[in-house]
Design a protein that fits this description.
Elements (H helix, E strand, L loop, with lengths): L6 E4 L5 H4 L4 E3 L3 E5 L7 E5 L5 E7 L5 E7 L8 H16 L9 E6 L8 E6 L2 E6 L2 H5 L1 H9 L6 E6 L3 H4 L5 E6 L9 E6 L2 E6 L13 H10 L4 E5 L5 H8 L4 E6 L2 H12 L9 E5 L2 H11 L3 E6 L11 H18 E11 L6 H14 L4 E8 L17 E7 L1
Parallel strand pairs: 1-4, 9-10, 14-15, 14-17, 15-16, 17-18
Antiparallel strand pairs: 1-3, 2-6, 4-5, 5-6, 7-8, 8-9, 10-11, 12-13, 18-20, 19-20
Amino acid sequence: MRAIMTQLILKDGKERSLFRRHPWIFEGSVARLDGRARTGDTVEVVDAGGRRLAKAAFSPSSQIRARVWSFDPDEIIDDAFFKRRVAAAVARREAMPQLRGQDGMRLIHGESDGLPGVIADRYGDTICLQLTAAGPDKWRKAIVGALAKVDGIARIYERSDSDVRGLEGLSPVTGWVHGEAHAADDPRLSIDENGVRLGVDVVAGHKTGFYLDQRDNRLLTRALAAGKSVLNCFCYTGGFSLQALAGGAASVVSIDSSGPALAGARANLALNPQLDASRAEWLEADVFEALRVFRKEGRKFDLIVLDPPKFAPSAAHAERAARAYKDINLLGFRLLNPGGDLLTYSCSGGIGLELFQKIVAGAAVDAGRDARILQRLSAGPDHPVALHFPEGEYLKGLLVQAD
């Protein structure tokens, strides 16, 4: 006999997004809750006519009132469920030839791996885990247990400290949840990314310690850099810069406003004695101001990388973010030598690819440059995008060549 579960009843017509297998159920779609449910509890999703549609994690504090675990209303959400989902996500990565030999990769990419609110990044024998929603927060033990069984994993650090947890009514959670640091006073480790060694700080670094989503784009920068003068803006710990040096760049100027990030970049360069450190210049400055100074000085570059932080975390910030993206790309075009390449990116979920391309095109026009897109860029294959969840494609980029 089927156990009686709390039911989340949808308003009439609001089941259509679930038929398209979109995993989010917004507050405005909910008619009522039949029964009691606490934050993170599993509820049965039912349409206005009484049809059972899915099992979902309930989040009473969030505008996303529930996130679907399974579109099979009879599937049981238990420890075994998370073991299956984690194993399937890992197996997908293991089957991708382009990921073989990589020390760093994303193992779980949230909704696109059927685990909404779960991010797990692997750095060698260490996983950094982020739980950003109420459902996975409740199932932490099961998720950690499943990840701990991944071949070669010795330790897991939780970095559930993003701002979005506040929207779920959750407090930050950080710390070792399986194993411990290599040394009690030093949580840093390093990975080999396409022949370049890079340090990762899972405790204090950005995101889960590093930007794994740009791995393939850093390799593209390496392929383009031979003999060129390179400018890397918002360089963080120097991933693009080191790959440009590995590709034979004549010079690489790297700018970031964070002194600690630049210290990490210099430390990364020291990890790679095969690279010519004399070709690297590190500048601690506001990127916008630094580029304006470069323009006044008449400096030009053959290859420019623009990888700014998230200017628009949501669509509500899109207008203000568009101005910032326009400004930085305008400066980039003005500093680019004729025939030069601009690698420009946006990681803002509130800026879609079509809008981003319009912004970059407008910047080229204002700079008086004719330009063409040579390649559209995105995150690597370890960051899959479910067809029914386009929101998963947050990183977009363009390789643009300007006359």
